[in-house]
Protein 1
Amino acid sequence: VGNSSVLTCPPKSNIIVVTWKISPKIGGRCTLGYRADQNKTDRTNCSDSMNWKFRPDRDPALEIQEVGIAHEGNYTCEAVATEGNFHKTYHLIVLVPPRLTLYCDDHGNPICEAAAGKPAAQISWVLESNSTPKKEGHDNGTVTVLSKFTAYSTNMTNITCVVSHPSVNQSKSIAC
């Protein structure tokens, strides 16, 4: 999320026609096209965040600026060149790093929260706990995971929560 993504499309020379067909999970389809004989580009229903990375006659790569969850979906490049026809399909999955918070509840138990991550984060504790994480899904496809540390012994001073996610690994410590 938030980064720029570039999807390449073969070939890079002798292009006659190139078409990017984009089918997001959310929203309508869009297409970007280029015809070499007319040196003409065309776009249908594509947001301004999607465009050619360079000039399509030199390199037909697609750039998605500030990638968001709405960009998830299938991206297919169809290129016609003197060497033949070429297709390349991408299935874009957007990762959203969770926000980590660690706090103490009213009873002095550490609570670790990995908020609004995609996919859901995994929470563990450095010291063993019999905690069962609770997950809450959100309308935008993100998930918040909440874990309450339950100690086997009562003489714990500093507890560390570890959040694992494909986009980031984080840890925080607290004394309740």
Protein 2
Amino acid sequence: KLFFTDYGNAAKVERCDMDGMNRTWIVDSKIEQPTALALDLVNKYVYWVDIYLDSVEVVDYQGRKRHTIIKGRQIRHLCGLAVFESYLYTVNSDNVSILRINRYNGTDVQSLARLDHAKEIRVYQKRTQTAVRSHACEVDPYGMPGGCSHICLLSSNYKARTCRCRTGFILGSDGRSCK
């Protein structure tokens, strides 16, 4: 799945398949400017920062179990969001500091470091990476991902895929080759 935020005409948090199909709104009320987003892949939770409401919230992948982690002035101007173990990590763009917030109760907000011009944060740790099983976009014996001549996108599950073409090309009638 692909998860993303939008605060155009109607603010929302959405998900879709990697090929763009099955687009679903998972949060579309009591939300103004969702910016940063982070996933708990193990427990299947989506965390986001709303910079207008000065809040960090969470919801499960289906849009249920929504609640506010933390809200208020102490978390104004947040950008970037990452989740690891019991904490959320984010960047306060006002004073350019990295904050650590307990994701279960919103307490224990600590400034860990200051970095000039930081706008994003990521946690790289082996335990945050899910195991990869064989999937529909694996390279075939001819070196083509999923048998697609240009781009292979996973579809509704890891066994299904959709082929797409680079700009200027159209997909052939076989659904795999680009012309």
Protein 3
Amino acid sequence: ITCHAQTSSDRMCRAKFGTFAPASFDLYACAMCYTYLTNSEDVAVLPYSSYLYVRTDQTVYPKETLLTPDAENATFADMVCRTLDHDGCISWKSCCKAAHTCCQSHIQSPPGRNDSCPRTWDGFGCWEDTRPGKIVYIGCPAFLKYSVSSSKYTIV
């Protein structure tokens, strides 16, 4: 992760590939959760947007259908979940909720230090501000298939 200064007016949520206003972050994070959890050939994130794009006729939707990955909106969530099995839907919603919680935590925290690697949602975990060179461990998220929450992964 590349470190950069964060200012007190910076009430944005940072993800692995960009910084977003909270509402945009939620959609982006849910789209990425779908991508990371499913590795689907049939449904993908539309480039440069936060929508899911149906690429084939192998789903319940026609090719080129756009899906809004909003896990908080029952209608949109149901539409996305129709492309997943029951466990996949639960995992996707759990990932979206974890991303939203991470974003809310980060925007409510005091601004980070200028010499810190900034707080970030990486698609699986919520990282806090960290001094460069420090090794940090967080638990593996429960929404990952075969995850053991006592297992750890690292960022340097």
